[in-house]
Amino acid sequence: MRKSFTVVAVMAGLMLGATVLRDAVPITAAQSTGTTTPAAVAPLREDGARLQNEQNTIDIVRTYEPGLVLVNTEQRTTTQDPYGMFFGGGGAQEQVQTGLGSGFFVNDNGDILTNAHVVTNESTGGPADRITVQLMNSDAKYDAQVLGVAPQYDLALLRAPKLPKGAIKPIPLANSDELAVGQKAVAMGAPFGFDFSVTEGIVSSTNRRIPIGITGGITQNAIQTDAAVNPGNSGGPLLDSRGRVIGINTQIISPAGAASGTGQSAGVGFAIPINVAKNLLPRLQAAKGGVVYAPRIGIAPALAVQDRSGQYVPVSFGLSALTESARQQLKLPGKGLLVGEVTPGLPAAAAGLRGGTRTQTIGGGRVLLGGDVITAANGQPVDSVEDLQAALVNGREGDQIRLKVVRDGQAREVTVTLTAASFVQEPAR
């Protein structure tokens, strides 16, 4: 997202710098008065000079940039004017805050994939008051509606009903499971509001685990790229050398942004793998403007800490957060997610997972003891709620999750099958 800002000073500074540099280069007498006639130089044939990679990038842009969409938002807020009563005003003023992100067509119906944070009202968590989309080489803006939003994945699906059919240009979707580190990556979007911009780099990592999402976000595998990604690129596509979408640009690492308040590319950007979006598309299309949640199996963690009011609040971290002496005292493994409660009617209960049976306070916290300890999911270590969620995040109804469990000191394997109930209820906070 990008808030309105001014770039005139930056552009002017660049132009002045170029002028100073040019004027500072001296011309010697030998250079200005030489009589030697220069040899004729054949004109440069630009088409022949293009590298294969350059031509490939040009072809990608020409073919698929028409599938890029600018996403504009408006958010109306009302503020009280403390001086209004003294000057005949009503004391309240309405302000319109605008934002800009990116998106792209994913099918012939005109469905537009973007980030959830691009179209979300930060204050209420609901959609922005108005969402419009704009196409390449056109100043027209079309009102768009949210078909579905998945805030935990930072994904949203839009549709603008009045878009001309001929203007819809879907970009083909790749298989992000086949990505290789070092392959080409082309990012499209509107960095800092410079619409329909293109940058190029490589895939720096295919398996970078970072927290993604705006409400109850989940640690997920993301694509890391050094293609320049900045505010305004959010929701735009990351493409491979065949022009297929491999990811949705979503986050950047910005040390400069920590000081300035405005994120800036530092050469480390992240994209949501397109396979995550492909898995969610049917649910987003069927959401009827509602929220799509990550699957859950129906457990609550056993560890809790006291808040300021003295209430115990469950925490997501696992047993490694306890001291070694505490684990020995409680006879618990060194790592793992201790199950506190199991929700009836959800997959964990159907698989026979067991929750805690007795409570013990320790170090200002509380532990529900007697439950199973989940140590791995689908072969990946589990030591927190986030670790378990990462194993579930791409799950679909009918998928089986293999859990390694320690019960009463004995290791066992439990298979949990995701059901329709895993997807329709809001996750526990």
From TrEMBL:
The domain of life is Bacteria
Query: Which of UniProt's keywords are assigned here?
Result: Hydrolase, Protease, Signal
- One example of a Gene Ontology biological process annotation: proteolysis
| Record has NAD as a keyword | no
Q: Which residues form the signal peptide?
A: 1-23
- The chain's coiled-coil residues are none
Per the database record, which ranges form the PDZ domain? 302-409
This entry's Gene Ontology molecular function terms read: serine-type endopeptidase activity
What is the protein name for this chain?
Peptidase S1 and S6 chymotrypsin/Hap
